[in-house]
Amino acid sequence: MTQSEIAINAGIKKANLSTFKQFILGIMAGAFIAFGAEAANMISYNIAGVNTAKFLAGLIFPAGLIMVVIAGAELFTGNCLMIFALAEKKITLKNLLRSWVVVYLGNFVGGILIAGLIYFSGQLNYDGGLLGAYTIKAAASKTAMNFLPAFVMGVLCNWLVCLAVYMSYGADSTVGKAAVIFFPIWLFVASGFEHSIANMYYITAGIFSKSNGLYLSKAIELGADVNNLNWLNMFVKNLLPVTLGNILGGAGFVGLAYWKVNR
Question: pTM to 2 decimals?
Answer without folding.
Answer: 0.97
